[in-house]
Each structure stands twice: as C-alpha cells, then as structure tokens.
Amino acid sequence: TGIGAKGGGRPNLAQGSLPDGNVKEALSRLSKVVEEKLK
Predict the structure, then answer these.
(1) pTM given for the model
(2) Domain boundaries, position 12
(3) In whole angstroms, what is the distance from residue 14 CA to residue 39 CA?
C-alpha cells in the first residue's frame, strides 16, 4: 500500500502543476480586484 500511496501522490503533484498555474492567475486577478475596491 505504501508504494501505491507514493504512486498515487506523484500523479497528483503532476496534475497539480496545471491547477497551480490557474490558482496563481486567479489570485492575481483577485488581488487586482481587491486593490481596485480598496482604492
């Protein structure tokens, strides 16, 4: 099960690389919106 857990974790990290980019874009957009609201 340990090997399976490691194998399952690696694909998650690989797939996480794409969502991370989307998250960064979302955070950047949110930060811009927040800055505009604060102004």
Answers:
(1) 0.41
(2) 1-39
(3) 39
Measure CA 28 to chain center. 12
Q: Helix (H, G, I), strand (E, B), or coil: what is residue 21?
A: helix
Q: CA angle at residue 33 from 28 to 37, to 5 degrees?
A: 145
Structural domain count, the chain: 1
Task: Reduce the DSSP state of residue 12 to 3 states and report it.
Answer: helix
CA distance 30 to 36: 10
| Single-letter code of the amino acid located at 21 | G
pLDDT digits (tens, 9 = 90+) for 16-39: 555 566 778 888 888 898 888 888
CA angle 19, 6, 4 (to 5 degrees): 115
